[in-house]
User: What shape does this take?
Amino acid sequence: MVMVAVMGYGVVGSGVVDVLTEHSESIARRAKEEISIKYILDIRDFPGSPFADKFTKDFEVIVNDDEVRVVAEVMGGVHPAYEFTKRCLEKGKSVVTSNKELVATRGAELLSIAKEHNANYLFEASVGGGIPIIRPISQCLAANDVIEIAGILNGTTNFILTKMIKDKMSFEDALKLAQDNGYAERDPSADIEGLDAGRKIAILASLAYGKHIYPDLVHTNGITKITLADVAYANAWGGVIKLIGQVKKLDDGRLDISVEPMFIENGSQLANVDDVFNGILVRGDSTGDVVFYGKGAGKLPTASAVVADIIDSVKHLKARKYLYWADGDESCVRPYDESEYPVYIRVSTDDKAAAAARIKELFSSAHAIVYSEAPSDELAFVTGDMSVKQQDEAIKQLCEGSTKLLSRIRVSDL
Amino acid sequence: MVMVAVMGYGVVGSGVVDVLTEHSESIARRAKEEISIKYILDIRDFPGSPFADKFTKDFEVIVNDDEVRVVAEVMGGVHPAYEFTKRCLEKGKSVVTSNKELVATRGAELLSIAKEHNANYLFEASVGGGIPIIRPISQCLAANDVIEIAGILNGTTNFILTKMIKDKMSFEDALKLAQDNGYAERDPSADIEGLDAGRKIAILASLAYGKHIYPDLVHTNGITKITLADVAYANAWGGVIKLIGQVKKLDDGRLDISVEPMFIENGSQLANVDDVFNGILVRGDSTGDVVFYGKGAGKLPTASAVVADIIDSVKHLKARKYLYWADGDESCVRPYDESEYPVYIRVSTDDKAAAAARIKELFSSAHAIVYSEAPSDELAFVTGDMSVKQQDEAIKQLCEGSTKLLSRIRVSDL
Assistant: This one.
């Protein structure tokens, strides 16, 4: 019998307790040990709960109880989750978590503390909810060099974009619908500004390349400026707009990493990942493209990923799992303005003939997007590969006089 | 330093040697041990090979060398792979394999021998090539009850069907193209008759449900009878024809398991899995649908999965991985004629009005497929749920007189 504690009894925490309780038999078979919840930490009261005798408001009770071998941290946020995690690891307890903010900002330090105290710090649930992705990258793909990871990592923004694409709903209406459905928080900025996806791609990059990539090194751009006009132009071009978190290894060893909306061709495996689903593509030098698809959030998917980590910790109480990365700094990442890619640009102008001529001069191999319902004063085109710096310069020169920039969206090579 | 042996130097075996050699540094980091190839077993000579000093034709050398801790069996076929694997496991050596035929026919016995001798028998590469699927099912989804697994498990048949769907190529021409491209063997029967996919779904079913499901218990139907007419009707219906291996757990604990061509709606995640790619959907009670997608075969993808298992074996030389199922028998599987599903039926007839009236009487909620280019003497329709027995009976009654059955294909609920 192994005793565990669950810290936080919100959506994910209560799901973890439910899964551990309802699947106790099959879990014991797989862990080769019975797993019993000794404590649930929450500052709130839950009178009448079937788990009433397990609740505590005092973290010290948990950290000082040597019988507790594994702790699930499902509180979210950096404080006090960081302090609690650190103290548990220092006591040799393994910690499993769904807390992507904490892993993305303090992962290297916590992994190093775990190593020092021969404990495990596991976080399968922090990316992709119930989709197995951390473990496949670290284990199954162990014999590969990971060339690129690209994914739709945030269900809320994918739901909003899907509504814009399929139902021609405006961004504002789609956001409101997402909030009404419980997919978006009342303050949706972490989702729609791309911060959540940025934390997740930072975690995947750290795992795949062995150095901590902090989220503030990830160039991050959300979906708040995407309009139905852009969606229509993308459709005319033969694709859709998706919010993509992406990391590529460059020849000089640095990483090209970003979260931003991108034009994706309809044929791409990521183009059909719709609604609240996530899809993550891992490109290995031996395996080629492998794609993982499923619900990226939600109580039970996330809880089942946390429980899978609990099982794995119980199976490895005396051994350490290989899940580790060293600290990193800004030298790991290429400055974003050196990134090179084709870009979609839309402008309005009083003189279309003159603007079209300027576009030809300024942008390498620009192709116009033909969209029959386009306003008569608009021009839209997709360029060839250009660095962000070159794009900035060319746009500046184009937008002298009456020509005004309306949109600028990266075109993906996925 | 851990010594390993590679048995078989064909496509996969030479890939394993290449991956182990070219990635030796990152593999050592992940396995926390250097891994060195001591022997390569093959009956052929490879003069001038950079690995010339490692070749042996004598299995006894490998099995009797206590320094060899892990053996990769990549010979294929049941004999002598079975005998070699058994003897290695009995000596406490771990064995990893891509040999789906052996795992599907002798898995329970070999897993039991592995358990007895505290060794591991791992076979990530046996299903889905480089797609991680065995490990995610057994580990990440450990906290789930698996409700259903359905997948496109054979790249050769998927390539042929894709050519029929996208390029209107006949089955015979598409098969010839697959052979010319090296995707199909000169004797393609194991692929096109569904045997290969049958072995793979048998392995996944055994893993998910804990009892060995032998391939001869899997109702298996290949793609040799699929015509371009059926492909066109499927398109008119709003979908495609794919060869699907599927297993579902029934309420009475038995399994519904089959490999057969199916109509799949265009919206399904499996409908867009094209060419030689595989896609596997795992439906868990907590995670919901999770889909794994990638190249299901090929030298390097398969080799990298074998090497990932070698790494895992090296990390667990003294511990056992939980990968096990008990023996099973035909009581685990529901007889196929009790299966219930909607079916697509196409007939020719001299009297369309009479046949249409008979169809209405005989098939519950039958819907005609409207296909503008259909021959004037044909009728095609999709039924509601009916057991296979009921379908047989109704078809028999419909096909009295001039009405003749042309096609009958399962309609999937995926």
Observations:
- The radius of gyration of chain B is 23 Å.
- Chain B touches chain A through 49 residues (CB under 8 Å).
- Chain B has 14 helices and 18 strands.
- Chain B has three domains: 2-129+300-325, 134-295, 339-411.
